[in-house]
Amino acid sequence: MGLWWWRFAALVRAEAASRARARTGWIAGVCFGVLWVLVAGIALDGTARLPAAWWCGLLWLGVLCTLVPQWLADSAGDAEMGATSGLLLAPLDRSWIFYARWCVRAGFACLTAAAVAGTSFIILNEPPPRHPAWFAAAFVSGVVVLSGLGTFLATLATVSRSREAVFPLLLIPVALPVILASVRLTVYAAASYGRPQVWWEVLLAYFVLLCVLPWLLYEPALEE
Fold it and tell me: What protein family does this chain belong to (predicted)?
């Protein structure tokens, strides 16, 4: 068992090193997210304070629009550089490749999303959340689940020559409940409005699904 965990840790280190070397992608994502918030602030003409539901909706829309190009770029880079083909030679279950990628890409996605959230607090003149711990938990959970979906679906879309068009068509219907849950949970954390339990259950269901489904389907997807 220790050998398997050592191999998984090696996969995580390799993926983290790869993402760190391709820093232009996630740095560009951070810049795009900050620009998104700035444009939203200009469009709202310096509104003193938005309703919590509006602000949280804008926040998650900015996060999603920032992360989608990164997922596409990561998957396209893996396919073009042959990184995935090399990992297929590793003596371990292919689903571990997904879990390693999910861990690393979720970490970088959290950094990008945190930059978007911090900028939105400043530019959109939003007050601190009423429940900061709940806000952080909901925000990180939503980003982690979205990262898992993005990583998995981007792999499925990579086999298509028109992956830039196929990937959003796959992502939007599947990720819509996650986005709704993330928005409602952050609204509750920001303004104590709504019932968070059902939305936590949605995120938990998707998290369990992402833990199980790649174990069954990721290897066939890689071999396409």
Answer: Belongs to the CcmB/CycW/HelB family.
Separation of alpha carbons 8 and 71, rounded Å: 21
State pLDDT tens for residues 49-69.
778 888 888 889 888 888 887
Does pTM top 0.90 for this prediction?
A: no
Place of tokens 């880079």: 77
User: Whats the size of the chain, residue-wise?
Assistant: 224
Task: Map tokens 């509104």 to a residue.
Answer: 47
DSSP annotation of 127 reads P
b (16+ CB within 10 A) / e for 39-49: ebbeebeeeee
Q: How far is CA 162 from CA 158, 159, 223, in A?
A: 8, 9, 18
CA 162 from centre of chain: 22
Q: Report the C-alpha gap between 46 and 43 in whole angstroms.
A: 8
